């Protein structure tokens, strides 16, 4: 202790003795500003190190008092030694490479320093996770001493969610790699990317925090559970749906980021051709009939459905939607969310909706025969019905509805338009570069009289996170159910088998043509078109 006071006296003596030199640099000041700033910075770092030692896991509990005293005067040196020792220990256990772990440790330290700023100044821009009743994660997980001990876990949880939002992720996957390591992956523009690794103890605490704020049972780690929560920063908010399940190496968590911005999309924003937009608008102006949007999971069906609803005059038409879940709030629209636990299903809700004088009915997803039959009957009785269906193509949509047990006559009378959709990643405009085409590709383009001078390929820059792609655009295959097709559906015995083969091949060909138009105009690349369409 006496040595510590001596060291402090030495610093003060050096500060005083440097006044003569400081006079030439800053006349009238009785101290050296540079050394004063260094002293304040050193004290600031020491206090931060004391905080990390007290509430962290680097030092055992019985040695924390002594470590705090040492850190008051030599904090950064002690903390650096502890971090390096912990990193060497983890790297030897095979969790990850030494320099990757060390980089992550310093990143966490900088995050902690940044979070030590005045909280009152950042209150309006603070990132908060809220449960269904509006309580923050701090309130859900408890107050007092427990809150301080688990503060780093709560910060880590908020950091994972905030990073996903900033990087435009649609899904967050937290799954165990082995018994000691968890991977956190983000699905950005439809492609999964590894973002970070956490040790099992820390990541399980993060999972428990998310489950607690989502209204799930944190003691149950094997039985699948569902939940939901929201995140808010200032006036901006995002909604999340959570699903958990037990795996061999531990508990897995899948978080879907709901696209609240979908409410602002119009048909012109989807990337469809002018001809396709005209076909969709004509179908939307009809008083009755069904418009069916189909595609695999994550192909943008809900966003397209919202864009269609935004093209309808909702002031003069009564629009009611039945969704699971409601992803975005639409003005002048009655939106109903499905809740099977309360016996609010698609079929039960549709029966009730038909008694509410609707003009337009939107069905979030057709999953069973009863829902399909009610929706198609509503399309025949003076209602315009928009619905989505998980399937591969327009042809397979008709075949699947038949497999669900819907009669051919009902299909032929109810369907007006079927739209099959895919999403292609757009090339980053900052780093895209002219494509290097092979001789075979050039010969193929010349054979089809296609100008390949505007074809680009992916590069990589900071904006696109070194991927070469930023954002997505839609390509669609549209099938107008005209009178001839209605007759084939109603009368053709071999129609389902024919649609599964010839129809599916034709649908993929149409999608490929629409995608190729975007390739030759530099919107996307040949590699991306091949990845999505084949």
Structural overview:
This protein folds into 3 domains: 2-108, no CATH class; 122-257, Beta-Lactamase, CATH 3.30.450; 262-427 and 472-520, Rossmann fold, CATH 3.40.50. It has 534 residues and is α/β, with parallel strands linked by helices. The chain contains 19 helices and 16 strands. The strands form 3 sheets. The protein has a 7-stranded antiparallel beta sheet, covered by helices on one side. A 7-stranded mixed beta sheet has the order 10-9-11-12-8-13-16, sandwiched between helices.
> Span between N and C termini?
72 Å
> What CATH architecture of the largest domain do you see?
3-Layer(aba) Sandwich
Based on helices, strands and strand pairing, what is the structural class? Answer: alpha/beta
Average pLDDT, all residues:
82
Report helical residue fraction: 40-55%
Shape: globular
Sheet with most strands: 7 strands, antiparallel
With strands numbered from the N-terminus, the spatial order across the biggest sheet is 1-5-6-7-2-3-4
CATH-assigned homologous superfamily of the largest domain: P-loop containing nucleotide triphosphate hydrolases
CATH topology group of the largest domain: Rossmann fold
How is the topology of this model organized?
Layout: H1 2-17, H2 19-25, H3 33-55, H4 64-92, H5 98-115, E1 127-130, H6 137-141, H7 144-149, H8 151-166, E2 169-176, E3 181-188, E4 191-199, H9 200-213, E5 225-233, E6 236-246, E7 251-258, H10 274-284, E8 289-295, H11 301-310, E9 319-323, E10 334-337, H12 346-353, E11 360-363, H13 369-380, E12 384-390, H14 394-403, H15 408-414, E13 415-427, E14 433-434, H16 439-447, E15 456-457, E16 469-480, H17 483-491, H18 495-520, H19 526-532
Parallel strand pairs: 8-12, 8-13, 9-10, 9-11, 11-12
Antiparallel strand pairs: 1-5, 2-3, 2-7, 3-4, 5-6, 6-7, 13-16, 14-15
Helix pairs in contact: 3-4, 4-5, 8-9, 12-13, 13-15, 14-18, 15-17
